[in-house]
Amino acid sequence: MKQTPFHSLHQDAGAKFGPFAGYDMPLFYPLGILKEHQHTRERAGLFDISHMVHIAVEGPQAAALIGRACPYEPAKQAIGSGKYSFFLNDKGGIEDDLIVSRLGEERFLIVANAGCAEKDVAHITALSKDFDVTVTVLPRAFLALQGPQAEAVLERAGIAVAAMEFMTVAEPRAGWFVSRSGYTGEDGFEIGLPVDQGEALARTLLADEAVEWIGLGARDSLRLEAGLPLYGQDLSDTITPHEAGLIWAIPKPLREAGDYIGAAALASAIAAGRRRKRIGLTPRERVPVRAGARLMNASGEAIGSVTSGGFGPTVGGPVALGLVTMDGDEGAIFADVRGKQIEMEKAALPFAPHRYKR
Amino acid sequence: MSKTYYTDEHEWLAIDGDVATVGITHYAQEQLGDLVFVELPDVGRSVAKGEDAVVVESVKAASDVYAPVDGEITEVNEALSSDPALVNSSAEGDGWLFRMKLSDLSQLDGLMDKAGYDAHIA
């Protein structure tokens, strides 16, 4: 199994490890998932996200290649900004969800999911043959610092980020990449840097009394409360951005026509109307209703399934995301948990309010 | 005098006559992390050794706890409904899961004592 540049620091911190996307990753630390979750909401949580892949796309036709691969207009993207987007297949299904940052006129950086890294790199490399660009996978240490005190911690560490807004990006030092974004619903930053500088930065940040290591367990409960989808659970190659409730990420004109991969299929899917949609759900009982649980209406007819579910520490109860038929949520909704029917209430997303700096 | 036995599925049984108080070990709760829900069996249910008896749910996942021996559930720890974290703070004390009347005391012979269990998890 692969290890990130921070593996021995996690061991020193007493982490419990588990496999994730081919990496041996920290699931939780002695603090425990509940306290790690709350710590992130109240102060600043440090996450090792080095399993994610950084793909640099550079050259005179970098914007053109990105515009072929992703459903947005990179030529119009401001330098110093990040854009949430997708790789789609020719059926309009989501192959991966990712963030593309524009670092210069001819320089873009794609940060994509660990579980999709291999296919993403193969995909963009194959596409790049028709464009005057170079595609490079960057070896990087990658940390996220999330929570209301994240900005102050980085400033104390000598990294000037106070002027940045949500979804802006900067390169404060050679080989460094900082984005004001994250996967928790909180204000925060993601910081990529050369592998051999990672440990020193982590040690500096951990020396700040506001900072604790946070594992993948709390990363999942934080993103779930924030209503943020997880690729492989809430999103897949058979789910369109439209069905996933992510059509906002695609500029209006491109929903009807475009040159990107999947444009025609997506346009006809939109014209035909969605057959299913992603919704928030809260069980009426204390029992967590987890991914895979079948959802049905009052007559017992299948209406879909839970795609992510668990306990929301900030909400103080179980929360879930479901993919259901368009009219499936008109009446009562029940989930099957170990043979018991648990009534589910429809809930607005996010479960915990976003606190981004805009 | 009660005697405590351990299983290789990380449960403990404190025996008093033909009644066992059953819980998961301190080691097991450490592996699971913070518990947020415990689904207890119905009192009066007969269970066979190895059958699912309890579901303990951490933030991250649900895990089954098996009946360690044959018997009938006589009591469950109602305190866990409102405070599942008792299993974390006191796995081998106030965080017990259920009591059962044993149908075959000889099944205890196959279980470990404290020293045996400590060696098992070492």
| Backbone structural class of chain A | alpha+beta
Classified by CATH, the class of chain B is Mainly Beta
Helix content of chain B: 10-25%
C-alpha termini separation of chain B: 28 Å
The arrangement of helices and strands of chain A along the chain is HEEHEEHEEEHEEHEEEHEHHHEEEEEE
Please tell me the overall pLDDT of chain A: 97
Please name the CATH topology of the largest domain in chain A: Gyrase A, domain 2
- Strands side by side in the biggest sheet of chain B: 1-2-3-9-8-5
Number of structurally distinct domains of chain A: 3
CATH superfamily of chain B: RNA polymerase II/Efflux pump adaptor protein, barrel-sandwich hybrid domain
Describe this structure in words.
The complex is a heterodimer of chains A (358) and B (122). Chain A is an alpha+beta fold. Chain A has 3 domains: 7-50 and 140-225, Probable tRNA modification gtpase trme, domain 1 (Gyrase A, domain 2, 2-Layer Sandwich), CATH 3.30.1360; 51-135 and 240-271, Aminomethyltransferase beta-barrel domains (Alpha-Beta Plaits); 275-358, Elongation Factor Tu (Ef-tu), domain 3. Chain A has helices spanning 7-12, 33-42, 62-69, 117-128, 150-156, 195-206, 216-225, 252-256, 263-272; strands at residues 16-20, 23-28, 44-48, 53-58, 81-88, 94-104, 107-112, 134-138, 141-146, 169-170, 177-179, 188-193, 211-213, 276-283, 294-297, 302-312, 317-325, 333-337, 340-347. In chain A, β11 (177-179) and β12 form a beta hairpin. In chain A, α2 packs across α7. The longest helix of chain A has 12 residues, at 117-128. Chain A starts with 6 loop residues before the first helix and ends in an 11-residue tail after the last strand. The model of chain A has no long low-confidence stretch (mean pLDDT 97). Chain B is an alpha+beta fold and 122 residues long. Chain B has one domain: OB fold (Dihydrolipoamide Acetyltransferase, E2P). The longest helix of chain B is centred in the C-terminal third of the chain and has 8 residues, at 114-121. Chain A binds chain B through residues 16, 27-28, 32-35, 37, 217-218, 220-221, 286-288, 290, 310-311, 313, 318, 338, and chain B through 31, 33-34, 36-37, 39, 55, 57-62, 81, 88.
